[in-house]
Each structure stands twice: as C-alpha cells, then as structure tokens.
Amino acid sequence: MAIDERIAGAAGPSHAELRNNLHWETALDRLELDVILAERMLDDPTRPAPEPWDETQLEGPIPSHLRQRALDIRARQRQAQQALQVMLGTIARHHDFARRVDRATGRPDHAVYLDLQA
Predict the structure, then answer these.
(1) Which of 38, 86, 113, 115 is deepest in the core (most CB within 10 A)?
(2) pLDDT above 90 coverage of the chain, percent
(3) Is the pTM of this model over 0.85?
(4) What residues have CB less than 8 Å from 53, skipping those under 6 apart?
C-alpha cells in the first residue's frame, strides 16, 4: 500500500462508518417524516395515518454528530403524542355526547316503517 493511500484512509471515515452514518441518517429521516405527518394530522384529523414501517438493522451507537438531531426528533414525537392524546380525548367526549343526544331524543336503533294504507 502506498503512503498516500494509508494517509487518505486514516484521514477519512471508513466505508463501514459511512454506511453506518447513512443508515442512521435514513432512519432519522423516516422518523422525522412520521413526526411531520403526525403534526399535520393535528391540523387536519381526516388525513390518513402514516404507513407502518420497520427500521433497518442499525449497528452500533448513533454517530455523535446525529445525536442532537435524534433528541430533537424525540422531543417533537413527545409533543405530537401528547397533542394527539388530547385530540383523541376530545373526540371521545364528542362521541359520548352524540350517543347521549341520540338516547335522549329517542332515536330508534332500528328502522321504523309506517303503514300508510291503514
């Protein structure tokens, strides 16, 4: 191996490190996309839920330069989760109220037919 190749190899990250960084960045991109979709669902609850997905096999600890991004995404996930829980509670209360109104107004649970010929 020439001296230039040894110096170049020592100066930069290895192929495995670059691949590991790419896998972590991709996983964080996917997590962030799900957070964005959840945040948008808060503005418009009729939006579809994010598609389920499985993360790739991530090896080793998260690279240090991605740690803050991961922490920021986690904070946004928690905020979205709390806001969605509040929204679900509100929706549950609305459904409960609608059921009580239906019972109070005597709306039948089955079809009613009138004999107009009698």
Answers:
(1) 38
(2) 39
(3) no
(4) 30
